[in-house]
Amino acid sequence: MNQGILMTKQSSPTQSQEQQEQTQLHATVAQQGGGSTPSESNHQRRITMIPLVFLIYFEVAGGPYGFEQAVRAAGPLFTLLGFLVFPLAWGVPESLVTAELAAAFPGNGGFVLWADHAFGPLAGSLLGTWKYLSVVINIAAYPALVADYLGGVVPAVARPGRARTGTVVGMTLLLSLLNYAGLSVVGWGATALGIASLAPFVLMTAMAVPKVRPRRRAKQVKGRKKDWRLFFNTLFWNLNYWNSASTMAGEVERPERTFLRALAAAVVLIAASYLLPLMAATGATDASPDAWVNGYLADAAGIIGGPWLKYWTGAGAVISSIGMFEAQMSSAAFQLHGMADLGLLPSVFDSHATRTGTPWVAITASTAITIAVSFLGFDNIIATSNFLYSMGTLLEFSSFLWLRVKYPTLKRPYHVPLPLPALMAMCIVPSVFLSYVCVVAGWRVFAIAAGLTALAVGWHGLMRLCSSKKLLSFRVPESSG
């Protein structure tokens, strides 16, 4: 009896502390959901349902451009199966995690907030660095891709030299300027760009129907083995970044409802945007898998509809690259904005324009880093980007599961309707694939990623030192998780 009384007395302070932590977390989440500072608690949320769908669309896919290498690696049939299964096995779990946590933590920063509350500031800073580096490397590829397409008209732009350098830097600066206009402009701009980039594929699919012969999709790779590594990397490259829009959750109107609906619509839109053109192009042309090099999709459109459709499809690639640049630049900038809000970066990154709410310092910094990265060689760098993204997403899944354990009573406006064991099972399939991407990356990628990770840990330590010594100004978050 006395032992039971003693145990009860000892457990009461622990329960009280847990309740206090829960109460403090609720207050912190409510404050983060309202704006960057208390004085901005009623700030205008600028992203509605339709723009959010197209922002997600451009952050993940931007159209069917780029799947050609999958056909070349494994043939049409396996590519069709891959783009049918992968959005479900990968996109749906990631979307459900994003929908629940973006609604539960409706502030800017997204996955950085989740890791910070789950495992502490170091985890939030490390995840933020991994994802940020991955995104800016991808962003840097889009002006270069535009220059490659323009090279068909102006050959000097496609060759190394001043013309190409000027085009890449000029495109980066020009496209970045649109982000200064605010998320409302970027969101509706993404909607217009999305419709324009999808239009030629709608026509191509419709025109291909009478020409389709299903047997053409059974063509096999001949004279060599199927390149499964290239196949899966191509699928991954075309269908990642489902969580990127979460960094702008503080700008989304009614995020508790909007995120779930927008992600569901985006899964359908993205799956259809790959499957329908792929079915049309592989069923209506006689090309062997070896013919499917980058850009062949435009050639297939020309075979199906004529030269005018080929050129329209090529122009759509430029439009798509612009849309992906805008969406991912916004995501990267608001991630820095959210990290400053958490006290992980100096408060200067929390600065924003009064009229548009644009995090102009974060956009400027991201633009400068993008220009610097654009001059690097991309062979191992892109592989490193995928590696860092995979590591970050594994930490994100861990944060999702641990938050269910750590804060079981946290208000979750959207709640994935599964118990913890089922949630773990749901995360296993994408986690296995992420682990595969890391394992096959190669020693050079391991070395680069290890160096960048060490740099990220060092950067976090430096920021803590600057904060404690008051060398730079930092926001002091109400809770560190």
Notes on the structure:
Residues 10-24 have a biased composition (Low complexity). Residues 25-41 have a biased composition (Polar residues). This is Polyamine transporter PUT1. One of its GO terms (cellular component) is plasma membrane. This protein is an all-alpha fold and 481 residues long. It has one domain (47-468): Amino acid/polyamine transporter I. The protein has 17 helices and no strands. It has helices at 2-34, 49-60, 68-74, 76-104, 111-119, 121-150, 155-158, 162-179, 183-208, 228-238, 255-284, 296-305, 307-341, 360-373, 379-406, 420-439, 443-468. The model is unreliable at 1-15 and 33-42 (pLDDT under 50).
Topology readout:
Layout: H1 2-34, H2 49-60, H3 68-74, H4 76-104, H5 111-119, H6 121-150, H7 155-158, H8 162-179, H9 183-208, H10 228-238, H11 255-284, H12 296-305, H13 307-341, H14 360-373, H15 379-406, H16 420-439, H17 443-468
Count helical runs. 17
Query: Could you name the CATH class?
Result: Mainly Alpha
CATH superfamily: Amino acid/polyamine transporter I
Average pLDDT for all residues: 83
Structural class determined from secondary elements:
mainly alpha
Radius of gyration, CA atoms, in whole angstroms: 23 Å
Transmembrane segments: 73-90, 135-158, 165-182, 188-209, 258-276, 360-381, 387-405, 417-437, 443-462
GO molecular function, one term: symporter activity
Subcellular location: Cell membrane
Family: Belongs to the amino acid-polyamine-organocation (APC) superfamily. Polyamine:cation symporter (PHS) (TC 2.A.3.12) family.
